[in-house]
UniProtKB/TrEMBL annotation, chain A:
Disordered: region residues: 1-50
GO cellular component: nucleus
PANTHER family noted in UniProt: AUXIN-RESPONSIVE PROTEIN IAA17 (PTHR31734), AUXIN-RESPONSIVE PROTEIN IAA24 (PTHR31734:SF8)
Subunit-structure text: Homodimers and heterodimers.
GO biological process terms held by the UniProt record: auxin-activated signaling pathway; regulation of DNA-templated transcription
Protein name, as recorded: Auxin-responsive protein
From TrEMBL, chain B:
GO biological process: auxin-activated signaling pathway; pollen maturation; SCF-dependent proteasomal ubiquitin-dependent protein catabolic process
InterPro entries tied to this protein: COI1_F-box, F-box-like_dom_sf, Leu-rich_rpt, Leu-rich_rpt_Cys-con_subtyp, LRR_dom_sf, Transp_inhibit
Annotated protein name in UniProt: (wild Malaysian banana) hypothetical protein
Pathway: Protein modification; protein ubiquitination
Lineage of source species: Eukaryota, Viridiplantae, Streptophyta, Embryophyta, Tracheophyta
Keywords in alphabetical order: Auxin signaling pathway, Nucleus, Ubl conjugation pathway
Quaternary organization: Part of a SCF (SKP1-cullin-F-box) protein ligase complex. May interact with auxin and auxin-responsive proteins.
Single GO MF annotation: auxin binding
SUPFAM superfamilies: F-box domain (SSF81383), RNI-like (SSF52047)
Amino acid sequence: MEDIKGSDGLGDTELRLGLPGTSTATRSAKRALPEGDEESHDELRRTSAAKAQVVGWPPIRSYRKNSFPARKVEAEAEAAAGLYVKVSMDGVPYLRKIDLSVYKGYKELREGLNNMFECFSLGELSRREGGSGSEYAITYEDKDGDLMLVGDVPWEMFISSCKRLRIMKGSEARGLESRQH
Amino acid sequence: MTYFPEEVVEHIVDFLGSHRDRNAVSTVCKAWYQVERLSRRNVFVGNCYAIRPERVMARFPWMKSLGVKGKPHFADFNLVPYDWGGFAQPWIEAAARGCPGLEELRLKRMVVTDDDLELLARSFPSFKSLVLVSCEGFSTDGLAAIATYCRGLRELDLQENEVEDHGRQWLSCFPDSCTSLVSLNFACLKGEINTNALERLVARCPDLRSLKLNRAISVESLNRILARAPHLVDLGTGSMMVNHHTEAYHRLINAFLGCKSLRSLSGFWDASSCCLQAVYPVCVNLTALNLSYAPAIQGDDLIKLICLCFKLQKLWVLDCIGDKGLAAVASTCKDLQELRVFPSDIYGAGTTAVTEEGLVAISSGCSKLNSLLYFCYQMTNTALVTVAKNCPHFTRFRLCILDPGKPDPVTDQPLDEGFGAIVRSCKNLRRLSLSGLLTDKVFLYIGMHAEHLEMLSIAFAGDSDKGMVYVLNGCKNLRKLEIRDCPFGDDALLKDVTKYETMRSLWMSSCDVTLGGCRALAAKMPSLNVEIINESDEADEFQENLSDLHKVEKLYVYRTVARGRTDAPDFVWIL
């Protein structure tokens, strides 16, 4: 399991038995990792794939493994793929989709939604700063299926629990707004 | 021997607490055996297959407290198939028949069904305490039975069990007359709880000192509970998801201000760093803190919290605490005795959250440290030698370097010398887990120096049979030896077969032992159960058809007075 390539890059000139391009593993075979190309072996060992292949390693109770770490993996996978959620706007016949992961915070999100629905000339979307004359409120459906007002929770928490967005209009929106303040 | 009245012997024996002392007393002579067995109140069975339950009940009819362990330790890591065994049923049935005065039951790594729990609940009128650790096979229906029928229940402690959720009503089953609860831990339950019922239960149990909530409990509910139970000593907070600009958060601050007796905290599942200020008032008195399920608490906010906890004796954290955080622990927590650092990123890209530096810092600051579980990506011999020098009081030392077989990154050497230093310095070491690149030499050191070692866990280590033989020869007090993925074969297994009679159990998986070797062991030692766990396709073949040269995937050997077992599934062969 030694690192065959020295850090000074002189590995290639090292004298050893065997054909060029192969290696001499001086240790007895460890069943953990796949036998294979020794060059990529080290790399493989250091990647998560290798760790995942070994049954029962690392020695962590399944109870703990099944707790947050798995969720973190899901979240990371989602982040890599983009967090696309549907956006509906009351009165608009079709929906849009946006990638939440490209926004850094609520301000950018509002701007993005403004741009997206501008063409419907329905005025600016409501702001937290309490603009009057705002006819719309941005809401979202969370993991539990509840309708929530956007802006209450920290951004990270929001993007991990938001399943879809809905831009509500009129009296419904005002009801939510006043509750917010 | 001169006549010694039984009452006097009994009186003397009453002073003996430990099982070992009582076991020793019982072997002196028949009279003493009788006195001891009738006066023993606490019985511990380390391996449920070492003896039949009926014999235990017959020997100790006045038993008040029973502890039984089932599956081998490596079952925690999915190395033991699901239906291998470890059933609680025969134990509960036997106790119901033979020891109806039973008050406490503690089960670990066993299969417990709802029927078992119902039988338990109905059979023991004085039942006071149920502790289930790493068990499975039951649902909230079983808990409902416990709540309904155990009058005078003081303790229900569920630790890291797999519990099927059949609804939230189980908690409502505690009758209004139940006012005796001292400890309630349902942190491992995944489902919703009837919070009204919980709050009323808490309100009517004035002796409640330990309460561990599950993740489904919101901060709002926590606030109400803390208002009713400010005398709690040990709290599992539940979700703790709260935004620090809300009224709920302010109520939380006040709630913790009122908890003057709080000494132990855990939970924090969804807590974010910014809400930690709520617990600052209790930090100065905390002796135990478990943040190992709180990934969002890290960085400077975590350090700020730690720096207030100067009375801490036990700390469980995630490795995102970093070396810097561990340095803060080292300078603050001078009374620290137990530290566990869990990995937060096991599927990730190998971020170096804690390294050998963090461990060295801890060892220089916390000289009372005696129990360690440390997951990291790298370790050096120099660091281990320093740790050994700084902390000679280790009784439990478990180091897990996440890359199997990884050498010292600075010298590229195996970690033999580092672990050697640990066993030389820590004369009271009872439990040791090894990792990293290791040769036979480390086992030579262990055999030579680890006189009091009772449990040793080895993975991806050693060069030859000599390694295992060094351990078996040297460690006189060894009780449990578990080995995976090491080049130890039949020669090592058969070198000293009588050794296994002095131990509780031996586990070997993915090693080089063959069926022939196992058969030889079973033939020589009828006092052992030699179990082969064979999950491959060949399991369909009768074992007679397999040659002696067949490599055994999983071997579990344990001493027993109950030859064989009747509940073994098809893939378990008892030779």
